[in-house]
């Protein structure tokens, strides 16, 4: 579960956060303001302070928030002087925006608020459509406005160029006051309530937020243009309401509810992508006529309310199609307020003790949950307080007029602890007169003129009393602690129960306890529970069934537990374990010594497992046949194990069998099939035929059991076990399964080349879309939901348990992907566009190709391991653009689609998407919090000696930002922080070579080279634009030691020629091959690809691993292809394989080494 935080405000106006992975409330870093309430999202939090002003808290991130400002310089051609600044009266402004309608001088573009800063000065954008323009960045056209080109023609009468300047949002990890540029006469009055949501509105662009607020006069306001690139928005706009509103709540999707002074609820309807403010209000009556609604909170598909009698209610039947719901259901408990967060999880603040409660048991099938459970987490600053106070208790001292011995019972300690927890924060602290004659030591140790603050560390000020002798804790400078006692009014503490003081000596006052620090500015005692006024879970993602640390009392709160823990130190525990381990080792040696001359009782053993499966028969008609299978595993004299799989089937009432030697099996791979739990067995022969042995089990558990058993048997036959080597080759199927192969030295040999169809692949646990490896053992991956993962060093996970999986470094992993279907329509002269097409047309509901019928009701998740987590929604982000309803138009099926309608468009289509989720396990840990689209790790050069520097790692975020990871090493493969590398446009792919040459591909299809990248300058200095091949748009790039390969959107593979140490950008693109889906270049300049289609002797496979043969220093493009494993592969990484083949002396003399970097 990704780490997120819960926000809350206590009664004193202080803002705290509680992490889903933590167990302490942390005070907000900027704690100078006092707040009334807050409303959180994933990366930010909005709040209303006690001055009734709105503030924004943006969480710190390695990726900066950047906004590009653009201005256009326009010129017209003059017969006398050529292009000049003199325009016609009907022309646009000389300096304007892109439309030419608004005047936009460079000096007139100002920062919107003090929270922004300029990143650079104005400069000319010399890139146009992925290709460089002539010097000066001018583009030409016949007239304003028209289609501009980068080439000047004889009829080009006007020209323009774009000026760019970036500004950066600088107020991170601090409360920034939201400025207002509105007319002073129309400024909203002070705000009373605020709510943030709408970041997942159906069809909503990613990064946009809906911020709603309620003023003291009961008016509702909406903050315009709040997005990731403009976090503080632009201005407030008034939304009319049928009455005076008290409170408002906005959900992550399109739900918006508000409460009226009269106790009714308002529901905003018509909220969608094009109208985030909605269309009209609907009124919902309260649960009862006597007590109206006081507080409301909405989520994805739920509404919770609190009435004026503090009762909690749940609204039934709420969804996007019916935002008003159907009826109210009363829930158990009395709350001051409730808040619904992500995944419809619910938090509340109790009326009785002002504690935060979490609603347990909330699942998609049971949205109302089961019970309330109090969050007992303490403050982060209480760690030292609780540790010191419990040390005092365990030593027999308590802040009072009695001292208890350390031999007191555990029940006595519990009574004291509970007494501390029950103390009211406003109750005066215990006091004792400073004139007490029993305190001579104190008066001599204190400086009456001391003015230091009282917020000292308790551990430095409160000593542990031993043997009844008072001791004093030294201050920071070694002197006794100085405390301003003169201004403290101490009262007589309450007497402890008589039974707890029986047999104890009389107290000698505070002198017997040493010095005790009192936090004069701290509203709570060390063991007091926090009193809350507001809670917000809008940025807190709690998965159903996840384990949280919020509900357990920490050891520092229990004196009895603290006393026990103090009796044994960690050093003593380590020594004790080491001693036992040594004794067991010596005992084992003694017992085995007496039997070493005996022979083994059993020289050979046979083990058999049988079962019933289904087999996809080899002959026509191909169909699933019920078969019996038997796995026989035998152990030889030398201890080696081998296995044979028998498949028994019946043909024309004749029993036959098929057998497979598992030492010949090259891979066992689950098959992507929504109806069957099937998997395939490949051997070198069947790999060449493109016809594997396919088996299917009745249940998912049966398939996992067989898959794990067969995989373990294959690994034992080949004596492959444990974690993969640092040189391993990694690959991923289109299903997301991860495979590794240990490379042979002959794999990259020029003579006696090992065919890659004989490579053995074994599956690793987890689920990824992209994987990237390095020969120093650092492996990163990216999921379908753009989450970054780092390899932990384990193996197995998922369906591999027991001997097939490591006992450590296996963690839970989840992934989310979208399933797409298309709605197709044809134009009818009478009725317009309809779902009735021609007989030759594609299905009206189909996949992207139109060959498969796919309806909303009939479309299932990719496999039975996936579950739906959203409803169907229109996807507006598909290539080509869409109109406001998501339609794309074309002249016919299939054709080139565009997002606007013309007179020649007779067909249209619309893409629908639905999200599904998979939960598995594997040796992967999440790297938060930035979502990535691509990642590249430097391939270690074979000639590199020593590894004194960190490992270079570059990545592209899902938003197109280029990042450089710092602090990556073998011991810390996740690294420490991200370094943002500035770009003028969003990027799609990045790759770093063995000599620190960094290449990247922008989303417009052009390539870029990053100059001056080195270990001392990991981010380089500037980008050099590289034009793509003619009439092609690049999509991926991969850099080896000296070679640079790129892939375009049409599946063509290109080699960058002319690269030299003095000119690393190269000079030209050379075409190598087509039919390529993915390319990976290794540290030896070896080239591996995923081919789109490969024909075998029995069948065709899509997604095949292929190896480029004949790659030599004199022939860097290679000569041919060697086809390996195939049938559903989607990604490969050979960037960790630096294993060289053994070369003869003659070959060494003839070969020429690679170009020196």
UniProtKB/TrEMBL annotation:
<keyword id="KW-0072">Autophagy</keyword>
<feature type="compositionally biased region" description="Basic and acidic residues">
    <location>
        <begin position="405"/>
        <end position="426"/>
    </location>
</feature>
<feature type="region of interest" description="Disordered">
    <location>
        <begin position="405"/>
        <end position="485"/>
    </location>
</feature>
<dbReference type="InterPro" id="IPR051513">
    <property type="entry name" value="Tectonin_beta-prop"/>
</dbReference>
<dbReference type="Pfam" id="PF19193">
    <property type="entry name" value="Tectonin"/>
</dbReference>
<dbReference type="InterPro" id="IPR006614">
    <property type="entry name" value="Peroxin/Ferlin"/>
</dbReference>
<dbReference type="GO" id="GO:1901096">
    <property type="term" value="P:regulation of autophagosome maturation"/>
</dbReference>
<dbReference type="GO" id="GO:0097352">
    <property type="term" value="P:autophagosome maturation"/>
</dbReference>
<dbReference type="InterPro" id="IPR011993">
    <property type="entry name" value="PH-like_dom_sf"/>
</dbReference>
<keyword id="KW-0472">Membrane</keyword>
<feature type="domain" description="Peroxin/Ferlin">
    <location>
        <begin position="886"/>
        <end position="919"/>
    </location>
</feature>
<dbReference type="Pfam" id="PF06398">
    <property type="entry name" value="Pex24p"/>
</dbReference>
<keyword id="KW-0458">Lysosome</keyword>
<dbReference type="GO" id="GO:0005765">
    <property type="term" value="C:lysosomal membrane"/>
</dbReference>
<keyword id="KW-0446">Lipid-binding</keyword>
<dbReference type="GO" id="GO:0005654">
    <property type="term" value="C:nucleoplasm"/>
</dbReference>
<dbReference type="GO" id="GO:0000421">
    <property type="term" value="C:autophagosome membrane"/>
</dbReference>
<dbReference type="Pfam" id="PF06462">
    <property type="entry name" value="Hyd_WA"/>
</dbReference>
<dbReference type="GO" id="GO:0032266">
    <property type="term" value="F:phosphatidylinositol-3-phosphate binding"/>
</dbReference>
<comment type="subunit">
    <text>Interacts with ATG5; the interaction is direct. Interacts with WIPI2. Interacts with the ATG5-ATG12 conjugate, the interaction is however mutually exclusive with ATG16, since it does not interact with ATG12-ATG5-ATG16 complex.</text>
</comment>
<comment type="similarity">
    <text>Belongs to the TECPR1 family.</text>
</comment>
<feature type="domain" description="Peroxin/Ferlin">
    <location>
        <begin position="814"/>
        <end position="875"/>
    </location>
</feature>
<feature type="domain" description="Peroxin/Ferlin">
    <location>
        <begin position="137"/>
        <end position="170"/>
    </location>
</feature>
<dbReference type="InterPro" id="IPR010482">
    <property type="entry name" value="TECPR1-like_DysF"/>
</dbReference>
<dbReference type="GO" id="GO:0031410">
    <property type="term" value="C:cytoplasmic vesicle"/>
</dbReference>
<keyword id="KW-0968">Cytoplasmic vesicle</keyword>
<comment type="function">
    <text>Tethering factor involved in autophagy. Involved in autophagosome maturation by promoting the autophagosome fusion with lysosomes: acts by associating with both the ATG5-ATG12 conjugate and phosphatidylinositol-3-phosphate (PtdIns(3)P) present at the surface of autophagosomes. Also involved in selective autophagy against bacterial pathogens, by being required for phagophore/preautophagosomal structure biogenesis and maturation.</text>
</comment>
<feature type="domain" description="Peroxin/Ferlin">
    <location>
        <begin position="64"/>
        <end position="125"/>
    </location>
</feature>
<dbReference type="InterPro" id="IPR006624">
    <property type="entry name" value="Beta-propeller_rpt_TECPR"/>
</dbReference>
<feature type="compositionally biased region" description="Polar residues">
    <location>
        <begin position="435"/>
        <end position="444"/>
    </location>
</feature>
<protein>
    <recommendedName>
        <fullName>Tectonin beta-propeller repeat-containing protein 1</fullName>
    </recommendedName>
</protein>
<keyword id="KW-0677">Repeat</keyword>
């Amino acid at each position: 579960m990704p780490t997120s935080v819960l926000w809350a405000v206590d009664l004193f106006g202080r803002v705290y956060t509680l992490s889903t992975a933590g167990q302490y409330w942390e005070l907000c870093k900027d704690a100078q303001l006092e707040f009334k309430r807050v409303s959180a999202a994933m990366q930010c939090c909005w709040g209303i302070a006690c001055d009734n002003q709105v503030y924004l808290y943006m969480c710190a991130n390695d990726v900066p928030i950047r906004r590009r400002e653009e201005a256009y310089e326009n010129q017209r051609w003059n017969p006398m002087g050529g292009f000049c600044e003199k325009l016609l009266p009907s022309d646009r402004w000389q300096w304007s925006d892109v439309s030419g309608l608004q005047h936009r001088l460079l000096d007139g573009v100002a920062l919107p608020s003090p929270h922004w800063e300029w990143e650079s000065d104005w400069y000319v954008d010399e890139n146009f459509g992925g290709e460089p323009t002539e010097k000066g960045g001018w583009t030409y056209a016949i007239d304003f406005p028209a289609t501009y080109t980068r080439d000047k023609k004889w009829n080009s009468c006007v020209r323009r160029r774009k000026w760019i300047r970036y500004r950066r949002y600088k107020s991170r990890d601090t409360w920034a006051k939201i400025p207002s540029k509105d007319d002073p006469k129309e400024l909203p009055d002070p705000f009373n309530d605020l709510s943030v949501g709408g970041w997942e509105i159906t069809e909503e662009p990613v990064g946009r937020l809906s911020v709603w607020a309620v003023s003291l006069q009961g008016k509702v306001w909406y903050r315009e243009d709040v997005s990731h690139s403009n976090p503080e928005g632009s201005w407030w706009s008034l939304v009319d309401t049928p009455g005076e509103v008290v409170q408002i709540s906005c959900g992550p999707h399109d739900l918006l509810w508000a409460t009226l002074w009269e106790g009714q609820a308002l529901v905003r309807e018509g909220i969608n992508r094009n109208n985030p403010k909605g269309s009209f209000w609907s009124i919902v009556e309260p649960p009862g006529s006597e007590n109206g609604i006081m507080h409301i909170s909405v989520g994805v598909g739920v509404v919770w309310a609190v009435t004026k009698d503090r009762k909690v209610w749940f609204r039934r039947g709420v969804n996007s199609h019916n935002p008003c719901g159907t009826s109210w259901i009363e829930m158990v408990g009395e709350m001051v307020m409730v808040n619904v967060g992500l995944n419809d999880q619910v938090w509340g603040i109790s009326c009785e003790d002002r504690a935060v409660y979490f609603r347990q048991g909330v699942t998609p099938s049971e949205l109302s949950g089961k019970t309330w459970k109090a969050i007992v987490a303490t403050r982060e600053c209480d760690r030292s307080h609780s540790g010191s106070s419990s040390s005092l208790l365990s030593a027999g001292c308590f802040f009072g007029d009695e001292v208890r011995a350390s031999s007191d019972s555990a029940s006595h300690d519990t009574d004291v602890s509970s007494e501390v927890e029950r103390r009211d924060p406003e109750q005066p602290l215990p006091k004792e007169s400073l004139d007490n004659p029993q305190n001579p030591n104190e008066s001599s140790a204190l400086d009456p003129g001391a003015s230091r603050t009282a917020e000292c560390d308790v551990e430095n000020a409160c000593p542990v009393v031993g043997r009844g002798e008072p001791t004093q804790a030294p201050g920071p400078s070694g002197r006794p602690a100085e405390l301003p006692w003169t201004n403290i009014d101490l009262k007589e503490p309450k007497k402890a129960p008589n039974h707890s003081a029986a047999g104890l000596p009389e107290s000698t006052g505070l002198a017997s306890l040493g010095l005790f620090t009192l936090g004069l500015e701290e509203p709570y005692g060390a063991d007091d529970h926090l009193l809350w006024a507001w809670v917000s879970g809008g940025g807190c993602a709690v998965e159903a069934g996840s384990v949280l640390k919020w509900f357990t009392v920490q050891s520092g709160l229990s004196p009895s537990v603290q006393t026990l823990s103090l009796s044994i130190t960690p050093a003593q525990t380590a020594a004790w374990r080491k001693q036992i381990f040594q004794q067991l080792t010596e005992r084992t040696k003694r017992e085995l010594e007496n039997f070493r001359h005996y022979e083994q009782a059993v020289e050979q053993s046979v083990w058999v497992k049988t079962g019933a499966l289904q087999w996809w028969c080899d002959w026509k008609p191909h169909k699933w046949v019920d078969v019996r299978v038997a796995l026989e595993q035998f152990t030889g004299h030398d201890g080696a194990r081998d296995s044979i799989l028998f498949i028994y089937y019946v043909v024309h009432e004749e029993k036959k069998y098929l057998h497979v030697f598992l030492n010949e099996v090259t891979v066992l791979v689950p098959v992507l099939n929504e109806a069957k739990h099937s998997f395939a067995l490949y051997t070198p022969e069947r790999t060449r035929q493109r016809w594997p042995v396919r088996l299917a089990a009745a249940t998912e558990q049966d398939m996992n059991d067989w898959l794990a058993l067969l995989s373990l048997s294959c690994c034992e036959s080949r004596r492959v076990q444990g974690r993969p080597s640092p040189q391993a080759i990694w690959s991923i199927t289109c299903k997301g399964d991860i495979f590794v192969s240990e490379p042979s030295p002959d794999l990259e040999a020029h003579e006696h080349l090992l065919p890659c169809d004989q490579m053995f692949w074994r599956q690793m646990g987890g689920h990824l879309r992209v994987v990237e490896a390095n020969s120093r053992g650092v492996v990163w991956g990216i999921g379908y939901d753009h989450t970054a993962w780092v390899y932990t060093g384990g193996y197995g996970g998922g369906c591999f348990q027991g001997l097939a999986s490591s006992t450590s470094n296996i963690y839970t992993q989840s992934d989310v992907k979208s399933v797409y279907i298309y709605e197709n329509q044809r134009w009818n002269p009478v009725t317009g566009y309809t779902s009735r097409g021609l007989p030759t047309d594609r299905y009206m509901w189909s996949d992207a190709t139109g060959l498969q019928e796919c309806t909303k009701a009939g479309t299932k998740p990719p496999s039975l391991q996936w579950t739906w987590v959203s409803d169907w929604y229109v996807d507006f982000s598909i290539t080509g653009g869409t109109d406001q309803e998501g339609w794309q138009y074309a002249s016919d099926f299939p054709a080139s689609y565009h997002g606007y309608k013309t007179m020649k468009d007779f067909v249209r289509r619309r893409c629908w998407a639905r999200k599904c989720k998979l939960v598995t396990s594997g040796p992967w840990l999440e790297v938060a919090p930035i979502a990535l689209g691509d990642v590249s790790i430097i391939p270690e050069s074979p000639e590199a000696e020593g590894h004194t520097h960190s490992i270079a790692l570059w990545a592209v975020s899902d938003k197109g930002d280029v990042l450089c990871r710092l602090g990556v090493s073998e011991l810390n493969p996740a690294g420490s922080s991200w370094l943002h590398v500035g770009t003028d446009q969003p990027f799609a792919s990045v790759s770093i070579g063995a000599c620190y040459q960094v290449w990247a591909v922008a989303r417009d299809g052009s390539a870029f080279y990053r100059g001056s990248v080195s270990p001392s300058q990991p981010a380089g200095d500037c980008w050099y634009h590289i034009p793509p091949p003619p009439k092609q748009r690049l999509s991926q790039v991969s850099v080896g030691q000296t070679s640079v390969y790129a892939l375009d959107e049409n599946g063509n593979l290109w080699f960058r020629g002319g690269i030299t140490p003095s000119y690393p950008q190269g000079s030209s693109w050379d075409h190598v091959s087509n039919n390529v889906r993915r390319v990976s270049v290794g540290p030896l300049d070896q080239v591996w690809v995923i081919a789109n289609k490969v024909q075998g002797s029995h069948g065709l496979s899509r997604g095949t691993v292929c190896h480029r043969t004949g790659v030599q220093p004199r022939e860097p493009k290679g000569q041919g292809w060697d086809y390996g494993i195939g049938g559903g592969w989607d990604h490969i990484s050979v960037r960790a394989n630096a294993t060289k083949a053994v070369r003869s002396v003659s070959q060494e003399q003839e070969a020429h080494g690679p170009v020196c970097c």
